[in-house]
From TrEMBL:
GO terms for biological process: glycerol metabolic process; triglyceride biosynthetic process. It holds the Pfam family DAGAT. Keywords: Acyltransferase, Endoplasmic reticulum, Glycerol metabolism, Lipid biosynthesis, Lipid metabolism, Membrane, Transferase, Transmembrane, Transmembrane helix. Its EC number is 2.3.1.-. Belongs to the diacylglycerol acyltransferase family. The keyword Endoplasmic reticulum applies. The chain crosses the membrane at residues 21-50, 56-74. It is found in: Endoplasmic reticulum membrane. This is Acyltransferase. It comes from Hemiselmis andersenii. Pathway: Lipid metabolism; Glycerolipid metabolism; triacylglycerol biosynthesis.
Length: 333
């Protein structure tokens, strides 16, 4: 769904040199931790096995890594609904700094959504996009949901790629900011227990297609959330995050092989450059999330939507997303 091409829809910010330096230092530090934790957890045990007399510190570290891996394998917290840590999502210094750096905010909700959210037992399937290079907005929005959705914020879970839960520290960041595994069985469990889900429908297919300044969503073949909405009778709430595609200059180097990797394994390796040419710190573009009104559908046989019913609802959803974008685009520049 092409919405706007070659134009920065979001306001480009101009933070001070000191703030830019702090942002790039923070991002470099955090991403370095992720890399060290991931590769260290693999290499340290191998080193301990093949090297004689490595010393007590290496053995202790290996034991801790094995204990961590065992805990991850047995707990499978990403398949359950108790990984949220509200204080972290709202008050962790790295997250509050990035929200300030990007002037991240949720726009005023439409009246119908406000009223629906207040009803006892209210449930929604929130959709948001575009995915962008790193979907940083997904991590940042969790700390603001209590203000936008005071009644139900603790019952909103985000569907995240399974691979994230196998990376040390990335796993914790993902869990603490309200994510669960994106597999269908988990999404159905969330809805069956009276909770709501937030999903980025475009996923890795949308991520690999990201280009600077091009507002576009990959929705053509993304109908799983519509099927869930019809099956469980839960309204879909479209939303859009302005600023996402204005944060990185994206390279098309090896685009074909990288796209093939997405199709084969569902893994995206973006090549993108942000602030001062870095690969992990976004350009300072203001981020604003806008929500639309709830969309409700029914199916002829309860809990068993047909292909025609799914296609019809999906087409209506596409129109609603485009209308939401058009309604707010003038105010975002």
């Amino acid at each position: 769904l092409e919405l706007a091409e070659g134009k920065n829809m979001a306001k480009m910010l101009n933070p001070s040199f000191g703030k830019k330096l702090a942002a790039i230092s923070l991002c470099t530090f955090v991403y370095s931790l992720f890399v060290v934790a991931t590769f260290g957890s693999l290499l340290v045990p191998i080193y301990a096995l093949i090297t004689p007399n490595v010393g007590m510190p290496v053995y202790v570290l290996t034991a801790l890594i094995v204990l961590y891996a065992g805990t991850v394998a047995t707990s499978r917290t990403e398949l359950k609904l108790h990984g949220k840590w509200h204080w972290f999502a709202k008050h962790a210094p790295n997250l509050t700094f990035m929200r300030d750096f990007l002037e991240f905010e949720i726009a005023e909700l439409p009246l119908k959504l406000k009223q629906a959210e207040k009803k006892e037992g209210a449930q929604f399937i929130f959709t948001i996009g575009p995915h962008g290079v790193d979907s940083l907005f997904r991590v940042l929005i969790e700390g603001l949901l209590d203000e936008a959705f005071p009644t139900m914020h603790g019952r909103i879970y985000t569907l995240a790629a399974s691979v994230l839960f196998y990376l040390p520290l990335v796993r914790e960041l993902t869990l603490w900011t309200g994510c669960v595994d994106a597999r269908r069985s988990v999404a159905e469990k969330v809805l069956r227990t009276g909770n709501s889900v937030l999903v980025i429908p475009g996923g890795e297919a949308e991520q690999i297609r990201t280009l600077l300044g091009e507002e576009a969503l990959y929705l053509r073949d993304r109908k799983g959330f519509i099927r869930l909405a019809l099956k469980f009778g839960v309204p879909v709430v479209p939303s859009y995050c302005f600023g996402v595609v204005d944060t990185y200059r994206v390279s098309r180097v090896l685009y074909g092989p990288r796209q093939a990797l997405v199709k084969a394994l569902g893994v995206c390796i973006p090549i993108a450059f942000g602030l001062w040419g870095s690969t992990g710190c976004p350009l300072p573009a203001k981020h604003t999330v806008v929500f639309g009104e709830p969309l409700s559908w029914t199916c002829k046989v309860q809990g068993e939507p047909t292909r025609e019913e799914i296609d019809r609802a999906h087409a209506e959803y596409m129109v609603a997303v485009e209308s939401l974008f058009d309604k707010h685009k003038a105010a975002m520049g």
